[in-house]
Amino acid sequence: MNHDFASSLTLIAPELVLTGAGLILLVWAAFFGDRHATGISIAAVAALAAAAALTSLAPADGGDIFAGLASSDAFSTFAHVLIYFAAAVAIIIAPRFFRAHTPGGHGLMRAEYPILIVFAALGMGLMVSATDLMTLYVGLEMNSLAAYVLASFIRTDTRSAEAGLKYFVLGALASGILLYGMSLLYGFSGTTGFAGIAAAMDADFSGGLVFGLVFVLAGLAFKISAVPFHMWTPDVYEGAPTPVTAFFASAPKVAAMALTVRVCIEAFGPTTFDWQQIVIFLALASTILGAVGAIGQRNIKRLLAYSSINNVGFALVGLAAGSQAGVAATMSYMAVYVVMTLGSFLCVLQLRDANGAYVEDIARMAGLGKARPGLVAALAIFMFSLAGIPPLFGFWPKFLVFDAAVRADLLPLAAIAAVSSVISAFYYLKVIKTMYFDEAGDDAPDWDRASHPVESGLIGFTAAIVSPLGYLAIPALAFVSGNAALALFP
């Protein structure tokens, strides 16, 4: 075994751990079935924790993997840790939800669920490390194939089956668009490596490369659910099981955003002005539609879907700056966004009546502030933070992306995004107003007041991060996000 190959195996140790764990857990589930779902879930979380530890211990600039197919650097490390954290939380919060969807509520969680999460995390790890179009596509499809199954995981629920079908059909369309763009880039540059594509664009940015750039960005925009490729998001978020929706709104968003950033900076770097126009449009359209589209929503999961679209637009504002500070702001935004989103969906998982049925209709949450004051206080913290209202920590990443845009002479973009942020605050406040000030109607549920230590602990942890206490983490967050951005600007 030569030195380069051995070094590459060391650098992809997290992916090797997840691959081995996924295969072992698959055999475990095949032999023992759902009776061992709890043990399989614990093992899956342990594998994700081990992968995160190995990623954190890797050299800050490990270098190329397998002759340039991927890269181990501070940027990929930052994204890996966020992905593995979100994936682990999605596994931890699942058992109680799935038990409620079995006859009598006494069933076991399916053993396949944590395995699918592990393989999805493996695909996302490849995505954020990819420096070649082939690696990019393999990682993206590995994540997508697991996601299609997860969306339709409750086979007896028509909403879940519909969500999986919609996600699959539109995902296949986006995959075809992305593949066509990749074929154009390869045909006109003669290589699939990001460095080679950048060199070809620097030498001669011909029409074929222009179309390749547009199609690739369109395919990636679907994965981050940026407007106008957002149409799947509200339906899939509403129909998918809530733990799966929490997963979709966090880990894949980080992976797709990190991949988009790497492609724009490393592969399309010499044509910054050209891709910048596309990203500015995606950012404006996403922030505006995400703000306006959520106003009339009655389902809390659909409202959070539009919130996700809105927040992707804000993250793209940082990327549109095309600068090191802009990339650092985008990655900081995604870190805080993951915590806010997971906290919000953890609160949604607590919205159960005494019979164990989940309540998603916002109007039926009237009077919840009196029945579950602690839960409503936590959800209010997350809503205010998603709106970017100071002094909550959600304000800070929005300030960073707006500041990066202004420094890049994109003042109109920052101004319009700021106005849409004010609009989006309306529907967040509407949810809080309903829970605290509206009187409960005749159909108001008898709320489940049982304590769930694991979920309550996670809610407390995430709420503490997005509270004003989060500002204490600014130096550490600035350091790691700055190093991540520096890795793309040698």
Can you walk me through this structure?
By secondary structure, this protein is mainly α. 73% of the residues lie in helices and 2% in strands. The protein contains 22 helices and two strands. It has helices at 3-11, 13-32, 37-57, 74-92, 94-100, 112-129, 133-151, 158-189, 194-203, 207-223, 233-239, 242-248, 251-267, 272-293, 300-320, 324-349, 368-371, 373-387, 395-407, 411-437, 453-466, 474-488, and strands at residues 61-65, 70-73. Strands 1-2 form a two-stranded antiparallel ribbon. Strand 1 and strand 2 form a beta hairpin. Helix 7 runs antiparallel to helix 8 (158-189). The protein is globular.
Q: What is Rg?
A: 22 Å
Number of strands: 2
Beta-strand fraction estimate: under 5%
Stretches with pLDDT under 50, minimum 5 residues: none
Class from secondary-structure proportions: mainly alpha
* Distance N to C terminus: 30 Å
Sheet of most strands: 2 strands, antiparallel
The sequence of SSEs as H and E is HHHEEHHHHHHHHHHHHHHHHHHH
The overall pLDDT, averaged over residues, is: 88
Estimate percent helicity.
over 70%
Which sequence of strands runs across the widest sheet? Answer: 1-2
- Number of separate helices: 22
Based on Cα principal axes, name the global outline.
Answer: globular
Write the layout of secondary structure elements.
Blueprint: H1 3-11, H2 13-32, H3 37-57, E1 61-65, E2 70-73, H4 74-92, H5 94-100, H6 112-129, H7 133-151, H8 158-189, H9 194-203, H10 207-223, H11 233-239, H12 242-248, H13 251-267, H14 272-293, H15 300-320, H16 324-349, H17 368-371, H18 373-387, H19 395-407, H20 411-437, H21 453-466, H22 474-488
Antiparallel strand pairs: 1-2
Helix pairs in contact: 2-3, 2-6, 3-4, 3-6, 4-6, 4-12, 4-13, 4-16, 4-22, 6-7, 6-13, 7-8, 8-9, 8-10, 8-11, 10-13, 10-14, 11-12, 11-15, 12-16, 13-16, 14-15, 14-20, 15-16, 15-19, 15-20, 16-18, 16-19, 16-21, 16-22, 18-20, 18-21, 19-20
